[in-house]
Amino acid sequence: MAAMKPRTGDGPMEAVRESRVIVVRVPLEGGGRLVVSVNDDEATELRDVLSSVLDG
User: Tell me, what's the pLDDT at 4?
Assistant: First the structure.
């Protein structure tokens, strides 16, 4: 039987390429992670939207 590890929100935000998609993991307050899988076009759009908020 495999060891069970608790899933917590601790740890860095990360983005990794897995095959044709980019998987983004964002730690959440209260524990857990938001995991989003996006393709290259969606990642570019997300970058542009976040950049407009930071610049604006």
Answer: 60
